[in-house]
């Protein structure tokens, strides 16, 4: 599902639920991170890292621990970039050689409406207006949840490039729907703060794709090299 949103150079591995959760397979450093966590947290932590290690193997990289770094962002083996996501019933990791992309971010959310009050906290006025139009045209999609998912994927691509926080109000996201039997389309995030440099180019926007399948909304953002 996630892989369909990403370039061919990216390897994505996903799991529905925690069938692959093997906490004994965690590296000692990883076990220490979740030693005091509740069972649910330990299982999702183990499963998403199992996905990440399978992706490493597909890229020809020996499986290694994936530890949280600054602001919880995963620290990847040298030469790799990646992103992970987990929500109820779903875990996924996407990895790519750093020579193929400058950054990537993925996110998945249950396909349901956001809790009351959350949309106003995360969406700009212009975004809320566009969501109203999309809802009128395609009422089966929970566009508020998709916007939240898109913003999360943008942040996950942004942070490794900058090491800085990106607020919900710092990117204006346009969601475009495509015709077809499966809800899907494109994302464009206009940065409202100075963007990171990639080579000699300063980024002004991020682009990505989204889809709704299996009761989930997923989004993926990729940043190419100049």
Shape: globular
Helix content: 25-40%
Q: Count the E strands.
A: 12
Q: Which sequence of SSEs, written as H and E, runs from N to C?
A: EHHEEEEEHHHEEEEEE
What does this structure look like?
This protein is of the alpha+beta class and 226 residues long. The protein contains five helices and twelve strands. The chain has helices spanning 28-33, 39-58, 118-122, 125-137, 143-162; strands at residues 11-15, 67-68, 74-75, 80-87, 90-97, 103-110, 171-177, 184-191, 197-198, 201-202, 205-213, 216-223. The longest helix has 20 residues, at 39-58. The two termini are 27 Å apart. The mean pLDDT is 94.
Summed up, what is this model?
The protein is of the alpha+beta class.
Keywords:
226 residues; alpha+beta; five-stranded antiparallel sheet; three-stranded antiparallel sheet; 5 helices; 12 strands; globular
Topology overview:
Elements (H helix, E strand, L loop, with lengths): L10 E5 L12 H6 L5 H20 L8 E2 L5 E2 L4 E8 L2 E8 L5 E8 L7 H5 L2 H13 L5 H20 L8 E7 L6 E8 L5 E2 L2 E2 L2 E9 L2 E8 L3
Antiparallel strand pairs: 1-5, 2-3, 4-5, 6-12, 7-8, 8-11, 9-10, 11-12
């Amino acid at each position: 599902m996630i892989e369909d949103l990403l370039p061919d150079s990216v390897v994505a591995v996903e799991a529905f639920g925690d069938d692959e959760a093997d906490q004994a397979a965690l590296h000692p450093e990883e076990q220490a991170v979740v030693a005091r966590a509740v069972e649910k947290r330990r299982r999702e932590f183990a499963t998403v890292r199992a996905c990440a290690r399978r992706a490493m193997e597909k890229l020809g990289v020996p499986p290694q621990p994936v530890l949280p770094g600054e602001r919880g962002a995963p620290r990847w083996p040298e030469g790799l970039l990646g992103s992970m996501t987990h929500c109820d019933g779903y875990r996924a990791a996407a990895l790519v050689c750093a020579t193929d992309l400058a950054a990537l971010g993925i996110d998945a959310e249950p396909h349901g409406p956001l809790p009351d009050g959350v949309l106003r906290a995360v969406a700009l006025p212009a975004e809320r207006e566009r969501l109203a139009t999309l809802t009128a045209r395609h009422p089966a999609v929970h566009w508020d949840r998709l916007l939240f998912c898109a913003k999360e994927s943008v942040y996950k691509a942004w942070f490794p490039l900058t090491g800085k926080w990106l607020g919900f109000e710092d990117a204006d996201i346009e969601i475009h729907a495509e015709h077809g039997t499966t809800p899907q389309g494109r994302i464009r995030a206009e940065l409202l703060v100075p963007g990171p440099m990639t080579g000699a180019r300063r980024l002004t926007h991020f682009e990505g794709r989204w889809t709704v399948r299996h009761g989930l909304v997923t989004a993926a953002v990729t940043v190419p090299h100049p």
